[in-house]
């Protein structure tokens, strides 16, 4: 017979003193390191690849057209995204909790 009783599990919370805290993800250290390495490589590729595009379009006169101005502005926005948003998202994705406070 199956009972309808709820089972309470020992769930680790990100912030144990808050009742509305999310559950903490438990991952092996090797998995966390692998995820950090992969995501850092992605961030570096994003930032430096877009910097290469920005420098190329700015340096060569043949590439300074209205169309390339749009491409350069997209590269600037991608570069800012890779340097300002992706590192915080990386920490949140790997750790499973937001440890960077209310301000960030």
UniProtKB/TrEMBL annotation:
Subcellular compartments: Cell membrane
Transmembrane intervals: 33-57, 69-90
GO MF annotations in UniProt: trace-amine receptor activity
Membrane-protein topology: Multi-pass membrane protein
GO cellular component, one term: plasma membrane
Domain G-protein coupled receptors family 1 profile: 49-104
One Pfam family it belongs to: 7tm_1
Superkingdom classification of source: Eukaryota
Protein's UniProt name: G-protein coupled receptors family 1 profile domain-containing protein
Biological source species: Onychostoma macrolepis
């Amino acid at each position: 017979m199956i009972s309808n009783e709820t089972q309470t599990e020992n769930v680790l919370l990100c912030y144990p003193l808050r009742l509305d805290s999310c559950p903490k993800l438990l991952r092996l250290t090797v998995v966390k390191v692998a995820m950090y390495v992969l995501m850092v490589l992605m961030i570096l590729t994003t930032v430096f690849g877009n910097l290469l595009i920005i420098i190329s379009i700015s340096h060569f006169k043949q590439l300074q057209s209205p169309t390339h101005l749009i491409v350069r502005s997209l590269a600037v926005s991608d570069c800012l995204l890779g340097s300002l948003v992706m590192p915080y998202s990386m920490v949140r994705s790997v750790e499973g909790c937001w440890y960077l406070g209310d301000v960030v």
